[in-house]
Amino acid sequence: MTSEWQKSSYSGSSNDACVEAKRLPAEVLVRDSKDTDIPAISVSRAAWTAFVTKL
């Protein structure tokens, strides 16, 4: 587990479509890395795991 923001491996090399995630003990925060002033959305760890394993 990390408390650092991690950029999606699906983000393009031109940095124009980036999503970042931050894993916390009870939730995962997701944000747009191009505009970090917009609040992140929070999802449960279970929902995040289900999402990323379906890709």
Automatic annotation (TrEMBL):
It comes from the Bacteria. Residues 4-54 form the DUF397 domain. This is DUF397 domain-containing protein. It comes from Streptomyces daliensis.
